[in-house]
């Protein structure tokens, strides 16, 4: 079963200021990854089957979804964790911020504060 997890990180700005923050992410077990891969594969193939009666567009849609199914299934099977966001205090304006992350984002990561648009670096906290 998928479980939520947290990782202590640090938000740094270019002037040497930093604040502690928490990165939230979801960890998938092998069974979860397999189930998500099967849903992606079956979902794409169902959409491909539903696209058959659409005139002219089915020449593009059906092959695209038939190819996208295994590709998405492979990517879902390989994805062990899904990053969600980083919550912390921005070192530039000292306000609480939530920074959205993509699944493919790696730490350390350079980004911008959504409130003050200041440049930030997210790094793992060394214990």
Q: What overall form do the CA principal axes indicate?
A: elongated
**What is the residue-averaged pLDDT?**
91
Secondary-structure element string: EEHHEEEE
How many β strands by DSSP?
6
Helix percent reads 25-40%
By DSSP (H or I, 4+ residues per run), the number of helices equals 2
- What is the radius of gyration? 20 Å
Largest sheet: 6 strands, antiparallel
Uncertain segments: none
- Number of structurally distinct domains: 2
Q: Class by helix and strand content?
A: alpha+beta
Roughly what fraction of the amino acids lie in strands? 35-45%
Describe the structure.
Helix content is 34%, strand content 35%. The chain has 2 helices and 6 strands, in the order ββααββββ. It has a 6-stranded antiparallel sheet, with no helix packed on it. β1 and β2 (18-27) form a beta hairpin. α1 runs antiparallel to α2. The longest helix is centred in the first third of the chain and has 22 residues, at 30-51. The two termini are 29 Å apart. The mean pLDDT is 91.
Strands, helices and their partners?
Elements: E1 3-13, E2 18-27, H1 30-51, H2 58-78, E3 81-89, E4 96-100, E5 109-112, E6 119-124
Antiparallel strand pairs: 1-2, 1-6, 2-3, 3-4, 5-6
Helix pairs in contact: 1-2
């Amino acid at each position: 079963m998928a479980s939520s997890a947290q990782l202590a990180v640090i938000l740094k700005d270019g002037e040497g200021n930093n604040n502690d923050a928490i990165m939230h992410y979801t960890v998938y077990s092998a069974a979860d990854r397999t189930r998500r891969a099967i849903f992606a594969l079956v979902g794409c193939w169902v959409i491909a089957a539903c696209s058959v009666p659409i005139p002219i567009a089915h020449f593009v849609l059906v092959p695209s979804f038939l190819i996208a199914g295994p590709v998405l299934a492979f990517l879902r099977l390989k994805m062990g964790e899904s990053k969600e966001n980083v919550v912390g205090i921005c070192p530039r304006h000292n306000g609480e911020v939530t920074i959205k992350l993509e699944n493919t984002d790696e730490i350390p990561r350079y980004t911008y504060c959504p409130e003050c648009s200041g440049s930030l670096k997210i790094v793992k906290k060394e214990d």
